Amino acid sequence: MNKFCYSCSAPLEMPDFKGLAENYCRYCTDENGSLKPRDEILRGIAHWFMSWQPDVDEEKALERAEYYMKAMPAWAD
Ligand SMILES: [Zn+2]
Fold first, then answer.
1. Stretch (H or E) spanning 39
2. pLDDT at 54
3. CB–CB of 53/68 below 8 Å?
4. Are 54 and 61 in contact (CB under 8 A)?
5. What backbone torsions phi and psi does residue 18 show, to the nearest 5 degrees?
6. d(CA 68, ligand 1 centre) in Å
7. Angle at which helices 38-52 and 58-69 pack, to 10 degrees?
8. Using an 8 Å Cβ cutoff, are 9 and 44 in contact?
9. Residue 57, exposed/middle/buried by CB under 10 A (0-12, 13-18, 19+)?
10. Which of 36, 44, 37, 76 is nearest to 62 (CA)?
11. Within a 10 A sphere around the Cβ of 45, how many other Cβ atoms?
12. How many angstroms separate the alpha carbon of residue 76 from the centre of ligand 1?
C-alpha cells in the first residue's frame, strides 16, 4: 500500500522522503520527527512550486500552497 505524507503528499515509500515520523516525510518534520509549524510547511511548498514553475511569483506560489494544503489531512480544517 502506498503511503503519502499527511502534510505535503510526498510518497513515503521513497527513501528520499522517508523520515522518522510514521505519517510525515522528512521535509515536513524536524530532527525529532515532529511536524513543523504550518507557516514553515507553507513556505516550503510555495518554493517547491516556484522551482518547477518559473513564471509563478512568490505571492502566487503562496496562494497555491494555501490551496494545496487544504487537501492535506494534517492541515484540513
Ligand atoms: Zn511532507
1. helix 38-52
2. 87
3. no
4. no
5. -70, 130
6. 12
7. 120
8. no
9. exposed
10. 44
11. 23
12. 14
Residues whose CB falls within 8 Å of the CB of residue 65, separated by 6 or more in sequence, listed in order: 42, 43, 45, 46, 49
pTM (2 d.p.): 0.86
Mean pLDDT per block of 10 residues along the chain (77 residues) reads 91 93 96 97 95 94 97 91
**Ligand 1 centroid – CA 57 distance (Å):** 22
CB neighbour burial string for 1-28, b if at least 16 within 10 angstroms, e if fewer: eeebbbbbbbebeeeebbbebeebbbbb
